[in-house]
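Q: I have two molecules that I believe assemble together. Could you output structure tokens for the complex as a whole instead of separate predictions?
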Amino acid sequence: MRLSRYYIPTLKEDPADAEVVSHKLLMRAGMVRKLTSGIYNYLPLGLRAINKVARIVREEMDRAGAMEVSMPMVQPADLWQETGRWDFYGKELLRLKDRHGRDYCLGPTHEEVITDLVRGEIKSYKQLPVNLYQVQTKFRDEIRPRFGLMRGREFIMKDAYSFDRDEAGAETSYWAMFEAYKAAFSRIGLRFKPVQADSGAIGGDFSHEFMVLAETGEDTIASCKSCQFGANLEKAMVAPPAGDCRCDAPCPPIEQVDTPGQHTVAEVCAFLGITPDKLVKTLLFVVDGDPVAALVRGDRELNDVKLRNLIGGNEIEMADEALVRKLTGAPVGFAGPVGLAEGVPVYADAELCLGTDWVAGANAADTHIRYLSLGRDCTIEKFADLRFIEPTDPCPECGSAIEFTKGIEVGHVFKLGTKYSKKMEATFLDENGKTQYMVMGCYGIGVSRIVASAIEQNHDDAGCCFPPSIAPFEAVLISLGGKDEAVDAKGDELYQQLIALGVDACFDDRKERPGVKFAEADLIGYPMQLVLGGKGLANGIVEAKDRKTGEKIELPINGFAEAFTAWRKEIWTRWGLEA
RNA sequence: CGGGAUGUGGCUCAGUCUGGUAGAGCGCUGCGUUCGGGACGCAGAGACCGGAGGUUCAAAUCCUCUCAUCCCGACCA
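A: Yes, here they are, computed for all two components at once.
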């Protein structure tokens, strides 16, 4: 491709509405343009990067035995009503009506459509397993789209769905996808980590997220410094507390203390002269319409996802002020496990069973209680892991130290089980002629988000530093001809050699000053920059720069193809990639 | 949906407080000079100042409403 005929509208300044570096650079390098909030045009350069990601993903899907299909983006409401998600999915589902007034939605994901497709076509165990995937534009009406391609409303996703005869088969499919994802992200050149994840609203037994490690990530992951353990914070289990249950240990009788105006943990502790780990924090939630109380130590944070999963609920939300008053008979800040309204189950974090003699709210205004014994004074439904893991906690799998890092979710694999096949009657006949539900899995990769993530992970002050596997062009040949036509002519010749070598290169033959060409090459982030100038031509050399490291070497014009091939191999190797 | 901020040529912004009929830099067009890290000179094109209504002799500027965008939060396969 000759850049003199290519459309790359670069910007010298950061766009005013871009916050994160990937968004700024995607705009500045002329790769995307915003149409409206969370919705982007992909320009030629940006689309090239996206297509390269998609190509690698397709190759790994195909290698794993999945088959590409393409499903409609507009989906009829009745399919979503069948699974109940028409009501459950919420406002993220963009709904629309056709001219007859029939309801449709724009597909945020395709479990309904794929299950409908498969149930109509697959009737025998002999046809299973199957794994179908697509690379397609998705629409999710996010409450707050942000950060450019990182969290758009419209985005490109690869979604795959597996159908198996039984759990064992589903597990095999799951791990095949897990491995395919590892292979794909490795080939793309991302530094990533698969972590345990909550399966969220989509449901299912277990799941992993693939996280690109980057400071700007919206997710926090806990990972072990010595073993392979890694988990999204909302999923990360806390190791069971070390020690015996002492919740029945002897303790003076409960005593009420006045704590006028002391609402928060910090206030109460300061007032009573105790440390937060001596206090029991009581939090009230509503799970699927019913009130629930949860206890954690004063210095801990309750993980509502764990609470929801423990109860087996779908929706969980904090009780509002009115409900708190109703349940505790007191303003917010004085809730406790003793004397709560009748019938509110109380769940306690596991580590609370290690101690006794707690301070807690008294369910009365401006009052707390001390000498609380959970075993003696109240009924605990269950002691369970309910809190967020903390950096000082041991690894739940091996006991070593852990650390927190930020990550961007670029892939997610779920084992769905029969959640959708049961609701949609996706059945087949087994060897015995007996009807069975298909066991499903689903697997997503955020294709457009990967391009943004790659920039988040690989950039410097001058611009993007793309991995060669997904760079819009693998290499740029910059010709500094000016008035010297011989330079451009030789440049063209070398460019032809690159093309003949099968290199995805472009040729900067524009009538621009050298500084402009260099600055834009750095901004766009071609991994390999080749520069041919008048002096170089006279001396028989081409300058070669590794964008990532900045290292420059000289390649001979005589024998250019061989020298370039060797250098190219080195560049790819530095990225841990194979050309 | 709560809280905050911003809308002025393609882009980044000034001008708004204190009303007087729109500016700069970049980009774009032409000519000339320049030509190894986002050059310079000259000459141009390009904006009814997000939209609607109001106040006023007069509104980018003041008032009301509205739309859009961004940030924080809640939310989120």
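A: One point stands out. Residues 3-7+16-237+403-456 of chain A form a domain with the BirA Bifunctional Protein; domain 2 fold (CATH 3.30.930.10).
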